[in-house]
Amino acid sequence: MINKKDIFDMVTAAENDADQALPGLTQSLNEALAGEGVVHTPEQILLKKVRRKLGMNQIDFAELINTPVGTLRDWEQGRIPPSGAAITLAEILLMHPDLAKEIA
């Protein structure tokens, strides 16, 4: 079982590794330990990152990838996982954002 000393040790190790203070890390770890806070999946982070990199809002990005905007919102908010095809397309667009113009 993780206790407060373990959290302190993890924060100290992470900050030492990063060579800087990491504000909010202690609070985040305490929330995770208590089963509180917000959890983001790698897929959610990927989709938002690609959309923002392309400078698109949800409506425009959903149109680009030929997906209903409600579905994109569900993916980004973690209500349902995106398909493998959507993840692959997002990874491609992240590496090659210029392809968005060709897709459009």
TrEMBL record:
PROSITE patterns: HTH_CROC1. The keyword Oxidoreductase does not apply. InterPro entries: Cro/C1-type_HTH (IPR001387), HTH-type_reg/antitoxin (IPR052359), Lambda_DNA-bd_dom_sf (IPR010982). The keyword Transcription regulation applies. It comes from the Bacteria. GO terms for molecular function: DNA binding. Pfam families: HTH_3. Keywords: DNA-binding, Transcription, Transcription regulation. SUPFAM superfamilies: lambda repressor-like DNA-binding domains. Residues 47-100 form the HTH cro/C1-type domain. This is Transcriptional regulator.
